[in-house]
Design brief:
By secondary structure, the protein is α+β, with helices and mostly antiparallel strands. It contains 9 helices and 17 strands. It has helices at residues 2-18, 64-68, 72-86, 105-115, 125-134, 187-213, 267-272, 274-290, 322-339; strands spanning 24-29, 35-40, 51-52, 96-99, 139-151, 154-166, 169-172, 181-184, 220-226, 237-244, 255-256, 259-264, 298-304, 307-316, 345-352, 355-362, 370-373. The strands form 4 sheets. A 7-stranded mixed β-sheet has the order 3-4-5-6-9-10-11, with helices on both faces.
Length: 375
């Protein structure tokens, strides 16, 4: 939905330009400690979205995440999902979002290396494999996000969210260029390791914030993310989170999170969410009936406490003209209204070899979907 996001952003920028209320200039230190002028926009994309200051400051650990997590959909969910869970502790109506400025790339790599088990050197191949399976490197990455509050003409750091990304499958080699081996990591083992890691990461984050800002015991929200396997078309999910308030030295109670991403069509979708599976199948069958060059459909259902929260659908098709794009989109629009209920968010992208041809989207509670066809 990237092109859709651009459209929405342009609309918001137009509204902002027409408003008599000016965007607020604020002063904040840059990465070298000098003062710079930043702007807080008047508008956010929705009530649950944070405003983001301009000019945009990238993370102090920029680029590290793509080196540590192989699956792009996991990266997206780790970043977006952490912001989503942060809204429970840091109100988007009060606070401004910024990428993490306190954990550098070096600090992130040091944490990952020091908090993963050391694998002892062995001579025999069989012993090397056994050693790796006994000591899997579960900890993939730590993602930092910051939340700021405007005070007079300045912004101050008021909280930090930390996402700890953990493997569900450990991939390793016993020699450079050798075959890959895989070790499944159970959810219980991952949670046990993740909670230990979280204590160490909390201490490091607070130390960095204190050294750079002089703020003691900054409030921190920590969430544990379980990655999917590297080739998965749908991402992993957050499995637990905790809030450490100002003045609290250690992590207390963890909240278990019941959410998952499910691919449609799949045996898992059929077994666990049969009614949704049947609706998806009906939609797919009716598309195929009228469009012979239709090449399949893939969906990602996001479930929270077993309830469908969002359905994202990708429909790849080979088109031979703009009229066919319009006809296909019109037909798909009617099927969306007919088949899919409106108690969850729904988005559909029609794609070809040239990119996105059209989008259909509807927010939960809305009666009518919105459509855009790209020329």
């Amino acid at each position: 939905m990237k092109r859709l996001a651009i459209i929405l952003s342009c609309v918001l920028l137009f509204l902002a330009s027409c408003s008599s209320k000016k965007e607020e200039d604020i002063v904040q230190p840059d990465n070298e400690g000098e003062q710079e002028i930043s702007v807080i926009p008047n508008y956010s994309l929705s009530e649950n979205q944070y405003k983001i200051m301009l000019p945009y400051r990238p993370s102090a650990a920029r680029g590290a995440i793509t080196n540590q997590i192989s699956n792009r959909v996991d990266i997206n969910e780790l970043e977006e999902g952490l912001r989503r869970h942060s809204t429970d502790m840091f109100d988007p109506k009060k606070y401004v979002f910024e990428e993490g400025q306190y954990l550098s790339t070096e600090a992130v790599y040091d944490l990952i290396d020091s908090l993963n088990p050391k694998v002892k050197e062995k001579k025999k191949k069989e012993d090397k494999i056994k050693e790796h399976r006994k000591n899997p490197r579960v900890f993939s990455h730590v993602l930092e996000q910051n939340f700021l509050e405007k005070k007079d003409n300045r912004v101050e750091l008021v909280g930090v969210s930390i996402g700890i990304s953990l493997k569900s499958v450990y991939k390793f080699q016993t020699e450079v260029g050798g075959p890959d081996y895989y070790e499944d990591i159970s959810k219980d083992e991952m949670l046990k390791e993740g909670k230990k890691i979280a204590e160490k990461v909390l201490a490091e984050v607070r130390e960095q914030v204190y050294d750079q800002e002089g703020i003691e015991d900054i409030p921190v929200m920590i969430a544990l993310f379980r990655e999917e396997e590297q080739s998965s078309p749908v991402p992993g999910s957050f499995v637990a989170k905790t809030e450490v308030k100002q003045g609290e030295k250690k992590i207390g109670k963890w909240e278990t999170l019941d959410e998952e991403h499910v691919m449609f069509p799949s045996n898992k979708a059929k077994d666990k969410y049969y009614e949704d599976y049947q609706k998806f199948k009906e939609f797919s069958d009716k598309l195929e009936e009228y469009f012979p060059n239709y090449v399949g459909i893939v969906g990602n259902g996001f479930y929270v406490k077993k309830d469908l929260n969002r359905m994202s659908v990708d429909v790849p098709i080979e088109f031979y003209g703009q009229g066919e794009v319009v006809g296909f989109t019109q037909y798909a629009y009617g099927l969306v209204k007919e088949i899919f209920p409106n108690h969850y968010d729904f988005e559909l992208e029609v794609t070809s070899a040239d990119g996105v041809e059209s989008v259909i989207f509807r927010q939960a509670g809305d009666e009518e979907p919105t459509v855009h066809i790209f020329n």
